[in-house]
Amino acid sequence: MLYINGEWVNAISGKTMEVTNPATGDVIQAVASGDAEDTKTAIQAASQAFQTWRKVTAKDKSSYLRSIAERLRARKEDLARTVTEEMGKPYKESLGEVNLAIDYVDWYAEEAKRIYGDTIPASHADKRIMVVKEPVGVTAAVTPWNFPVAMITRKIAPAIAAGCPVILKPASATPLSAIKVFEAIHEAELPKGVANLVSGSASKVVGEMTSNELVRKITFTGSTEVGKKLMRDSADTVKKVSMELGGHAPFVVFNDADIEVAAEGAVASKFRNAGQTCICTNRIYVQEDIAEQFGKVFASKVAELKMGNGLEEGVDIGPLINEEALEKVEDHIQNATSYGGTILCGGKRGNNEAGVFYQPTVIQGATEEMKIATEETFGPVAPIFTFQTDEEAVRKANHAQYGLAAYCYTKNVNRAFYMMEELEYGIVGINDAVPTTAQAPFGGVKESGIGREGGKYGIEEYLEEKFVSFNLG
């Protein structure tokens, strides 16, 4: 079902699409598949709702968001199971994602009450200058399949808090999680048109979002290639955009680091969600004199990871999202071995013929010529490169195109600050492999994105400053 103007409806065309479990290949359910007409209806509903929602008090907006959070909290186990069924991540990871999603709603329930303006000293005695912040307007949000709940709340919670009605387009692979979120929104009795859900054809739904002049803001999480297209398509109507795009995170390990701790951090960063996260480690750089030791410790930990259906007890690695993703992993590994890379563990497809599984893999002796050195793998493959000096580590870690997240392990405080300052990334984890949290800004530099999500910074993406000058003379 689609959720438009406070009601559950079928697609105007009557079309549906199937949702498949990547761990089993089974069809879970068929859901409504919307198109441009459904999207236009949702946009019109949001535009009408904007006239009243923008004037709702901060206290009342906060109350609605708290109510949504309470309802999400009451169904978090069901939500987590849905996430695992439709995209494959282990249940314990899904539950962690749902808890993070609720944290975003809780946070922005409070930020709704903290939208402040300014009074500026005037240059003339008979003038007064004010700056007030107002909602940008109708917002279109496009979310990915790898975090099908947290990416929704990270976008719609600050939009609602700021006074912006939203139309959400979830990934076609994971619409069931979005439906569950909107069930909570419906139960919270959010006013009609403030939050709308249109699943379906990306080209038709998003095409209407980018071309419709009633939409004043586009927020997107996904690949850099698609993000660039959305920016181009939004240019004709000069929409405000925020983009969280691709990453190619380096993980730097110095010889003064605790190897056990660094290896555990690398496992946590690289293999969460089977390597299908935008901030997961893609390149591990280890100082040359400890590279062999680190490789052995790291590979031994990776080899212990249990692969299987995410609903099974003790599973650490679930399936990839589809066959295309698996083929990309295989291509990167084959390319790496052709350039002399050595597989320390993994390197094969899973033995589950129905699902899309690939063994968690570690490659020693990675070089800059390999595809994996420059292309985002988005899979459970960890290549180990080496470096000698701090300067070389920085030079190799910084990427010409990507700048989302980077990690560094060292016990040297001076070195930690040096790396923090020299790494050209929007997020830097120093001895921290899992930095994401609701109260901090998430986003990248270069071609990894524009704008930030999370924390007090996230709500700014949905506000405009209005300068007002009073002449009292």
TrEMBL record:
UniProt keyword list? Oxidoreductase
- Going by the entry's taxonomy, the superkingdom of the source organism is recorded as Bacteria
InterPro entries cross-referenced by the UniProt entry: Ald_DH/histidinol_DH, Ald_DH_C, Ald_DH_CS_CYS, Ald_DH_N, Aldehyde_DH_dom, Aldehyde_DH_Superfamily
Residue span(s) of domain Aldehyde dehydrogenase = 8-468
Q: Does the keyword Oxidoreductase apply?
A: yes
Task: Give the Enzyme Commission number.
Answer: 1.2.1.-
Any keyword Repeat?
no
Region forming the signal peptide: none
GO-annotated molecular function: oxidoreductase activity
Q: What is this protein called?
A: NAD-dependent succinate-semialdehyde dehydrogenase
Say which species the protein is native to. Answer: Pontibacillus salicampi
